[in-house]
Amino acid sequence: GFEGPTCETNVDDCPGHRCLHGGTCVDGVNTYNCQCPPEWTGRFCAEDVDECQLQPNACHNGGTCFNSQGGHTCVCVNGWTGESCSDNIDDCATAVCLNGATCHDRVASFYCACPVGKTGLLCHLDDACVSNPCHDGAVCDTNPVNGHAICTCPPGFTGGACDQDVDECSIGANPCEHFGRCVNTQGSFRCRCGQGYAGPRCESDVNECLSGPCRNQATCLDRIGRFTCICMAGFSGPLCELEVDECQSSPCANGGFCHDLLNGFSCSCLPGFSGPTCQLDMDECASTPCRNGAKCLDRPNGYECLCPEGFEGLLCELNVDDCSPDPCHHGTCLDGISSFSCACAAGFTGYRCELQLDECQSQPCRNGGKCIDRINAYQCLC
């Protein structure tokens, strides 16, 4: 690969090279390489490059790529031309737009912009829509073949000129929902809704609760054409507008006075009664008011003492005076408890001092003297 006195020169290996198809030889050291043109590849540029696979967009606008030796070919779709199908064919070059129409090129076609009064593909027909043959609101189009008017009717109309009203109420199912009554109108219809419904087709349930008809914080339930109020405790009426009078049932017992409250009541009890409804008779005997062992009987708003023998008074606090009237005949009465005793005067004895002592019984007179009994004394008749 080298030559010269000192081997300083690289031997040119390119003479007689084998590079094909216009490939350029590039010398190396004891070898060479081939620089190939874009259409060829391989060591000696002998292999064809498939441009259709290497460049998927080699053909534009839908063209089909076909590989060939040393190149490729694009088969263009209608309307395009050029090596890579990138040029749009000017269809207006061969088009004939009549009556002063303007030609606009498209892809594989053209469009004639007609002057007023003309129509058709080539503007060769008189435009029937100029005379406004269609009813108001309809869209008029011209048949491109014969120039006749074609009326596209708005909803609610029919006929060639869209001048006939469609009775929406008589064709097909009732357009009004929830049994609404359909009323035909010119070009349309309207619905007369039943109670509780609204909307163009009676499709909406009227929410009667929106106006807040229920009072006193009641809950409103929407119904079909009506509403129901669920009242808070203590209220009644269709709108919960009435406060319930809990006193109407006379809940207070034993003559108690009832005070109506919100969702309740209170009782003002007469003396001697207690409890939420005055149902409890207060036990006045609980404080043991009766004295001297008396028995206490509870009464409404009071009590009664049954006194044992020998006592009297409201509380049996008084000892009965058994000395009144004085039972002792000849003595002093000493009062006890349900009893008395008599301290007899001198010369008397007995339970009530009713007996006079017989001082002569002991025969005090001597020597035959006669004893005459006296009160607490005696006399001797000698």
UniProtKB/TrEMBL annotation:
**Domain EGF-like residue range list:** 10-46, 48-86, 88-124, 125-163, 165-203, 205-241, 243-279, 281-317, 319-354, 356-382
Name the record gives this protein = NOTC3 protein
One of the protein's GO biological processes = axon guidance
Homology family:
Belongs to the NOTCH family.
Q: Which UniProt keywords apply?
A: Developmental protein, Differentiation, Disulfide bond, EGF-like domain, Glycoprotein, Receptor, Repeat, Secreted, Signal
Source taxon at top rank: Eukaryota
This protein's major location comes to: secreted
PROSITE patterns xref list: ASX_HYDROXYL, EGF_1, EGF_2, EGF_3, EGF_CA
The record's section on InterPro entries has: EGF, EGF-like_Ca-bd_dom, EGF-like_CS, EGF-type_Asp/Asn_hydroxyl_site, EGF_Ca-bd_CS, Growth_fac_rcpt_cys_sf, Notch/Slit_guidance, NOTCH1_EGF-like
**Entry GO MF terms:** calcium ion binding
> GO CC annotation: what is one?
cell surface
Q: Tell me where in or outside the cell this protein is found.
A: Secreted
Q: Which Gene3D superfamilies match?
A: Laminin
Matching Pfam families: EGF (PF00008), EGF_CA (PF07645), hEGF (PF12661)
Q: List the disulfide bonds.
A: C36-C45, C76-C85, C114-C123, C134-C151, C153-C162, C193-C202, C231-C240, C269-C278, C307-C316, C323-C333, C344-C353
